[in-house]
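Progress note, sequence design subtask.
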């Protein structure tokens, strides 16, 4: 039976392997060392993308406010034949313009209609009769309760994952003298013992940060 022999690597192959191994180690080391820098570059690009997106969303809200003021305030004042009045149901009254609370509710409605990552809500657990009750989630109920105990505290919440984060900030709607006078005498007011400084509800800003929707911003990694 013939004997089989194993071919031994020649000296040149051994020499190449001797030089390639250290080079491979160097390249792998450099690649690993560059990962933090690549991640930093990607996060910088992603942050810039998200900020531009949020700025554009906020710009749409500002446009809505301007359009709302032009159509539901200025235009109605110009077209009014008699004395201009203010009312929560201003569209049903010729020459009437929205009260501040109604104006804020309209802004919230318009911001939600865009379906963007920037929303504004003006909400209370004491809506006027005839208006649909506001649907308050756990964060909003807790915010109203805490701000009524201390209106100066900062209420915020960050939820979701690192890939789809939502930031919410709530601030109090504080009753002034004019607000108290209206709410304590209005026939549709659900509460008539308000005092100046009371917290009627909250205004809330909701900002979404959908990193997963911008995953293609990761290019350096």
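Output:
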């Amino acid at each position: 039976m013939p004997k089989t022999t194993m071919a031994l690597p020649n000296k040149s192959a051994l020499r190449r392997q001797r030089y390639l191994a250290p080079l491979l180690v160097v390249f792998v080391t450099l690649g690993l060392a560059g990962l933090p820098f690549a991640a930093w570059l990607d996060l910088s690009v992603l942050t810039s993308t998200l900020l531009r997106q949020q700025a554009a969303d906020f710009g749409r809200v500002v446009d809505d406010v301007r359009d709302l003021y032009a159509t539901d305030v200025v235009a109605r004042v110009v077209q009014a034949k008699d004395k201009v009045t203010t009312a929560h149901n201003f569209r049903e009254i010729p020459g009437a313009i929205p009260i501040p609370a109604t104006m804020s509710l309209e802004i919230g409605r318009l911001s939600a209609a865009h379906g963007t990552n920037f929303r504004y809500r003006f909400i209370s657990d004491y809506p006027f009769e005839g208006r649909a009750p506001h649907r308050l989630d756990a964060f909003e109920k807790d915010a109203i309760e805490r701000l009524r105990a201390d209106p100066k505290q900062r209420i915020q919440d960050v939820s979701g994952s690192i890939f789809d984060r939502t930031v919410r900030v709530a601030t109090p709607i504080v009753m002034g003298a004019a607000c108290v006078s209206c709410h304590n005498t209005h026939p549709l007011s659900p509460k008539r013992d308000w005092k100046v400084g009371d917290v009627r509800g909250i205004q809330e800003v909701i900002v979404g940060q959908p990193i997963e929707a911008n995953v293609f911003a990761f290019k350096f990694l």
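The CA atoms of residues 126 and 188 lie 11 Å apart. Work on this subtask will continue into the next period as scheduled.
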